[in-house]
Fold this protein.
Amino acid sequence: MFTRFRRKRLNPVLRDLLQETHLRVDDFIYPLFIKSGEGIKKEVDSMPGVFQMSIDEALKECTVLKNLGIFSIILFGIPDTKDSVGSDAMCDHGIIASSIRAIKEEHPDMFVVTDLCFCEYTDHGHCGVLDPILETVDNDITLTNLQKQAVVHAKAGADMIAPSGMMDGMITAIREGLDGGGFSHIPIMSYSTKFSSAYYGPFRDVAESSPSFGDRRSYQMNPANRKEAILESIADEKEGADILMVKPALAYLDIVRDIKENCSLPLAVYNVSGEYSMLKMAAKAGVIDYEKVMMETMIGFKRAGADIIISYHAKEVAALLNS
Ligand code: PBG
Ligand code: ZN
């Protein structure tokens, strides 16, 4: 006997009719890593298919992305010079400000999100200015610098600002900075619940942003904490964030669901570098059907409650969705 479950799984058309969760190309934001120079397109060993690119190459990449139907990117910069405060990130001619200008000029229809943090720009690799006594990031000086960085990005033409540094009060500070600078129309996508995760390892190779000492546990969250994870996103919602985020994604789908249920804002997940590399390496070793595992992973994010997926797989997913 077929029962009420199996009789609905027999016909493929009926299976499609009954599918509860769907992936769309519009769900995705694709990360780009920009380095100064020309004609640079350097693949990263730990992340096959991911490149450090110079601005001219990033412009070509935007054409490829748009042809796939991807119109949102998030930018990370690899500056020529790093210093103790991360000056390049607050300079109108820094790597990201220059990239935004070039991209918006050639691709005005591309929605350009910028990661707002200092770890790629500081010589010590931490996400802000260091307090010499505590030997960790000084919260409030870093907030002032984040305001500067946000205004620099907005002036250059960024469409949305995404602070990833996990400083207390960062949304209030950045909102004030943007509003005061005449950028009240620019939304903030907060990395509101970001864990201190070993899954960021490959990213730090690409972005050249490993901390030179210690780790990020005095600002990023303990992976063991669920209640605190919810509180972090609730706080950012109250501070005026426009979109919330959980990062990493795969090991934190319970938190995605929790935040979806406890907050009203749209929710993004960041399918991080280590998650991407695991699938790539497993595929290389011939132990998984890469495309199927990738799509199953993406639908899992949506089912858990994500509205937006930031992923290095976005191009491959789009190609499959379009086929
Ligand atoms: C910067 C930042 C990181 C990632 C996104 N923004 C690295 C970190 O916090 O160390 C990680 C993304 C990834 O692993 O793909 N703060
Ligand atoms: Zn950082």
Q: What stands out?
A: The chain has eleven helices and twelve strands. The chain has a mean pLDDT of 97. Residues 71 and 110 are 5 Å apart (CA to CA). The first helix runs from residue 12 to 17.
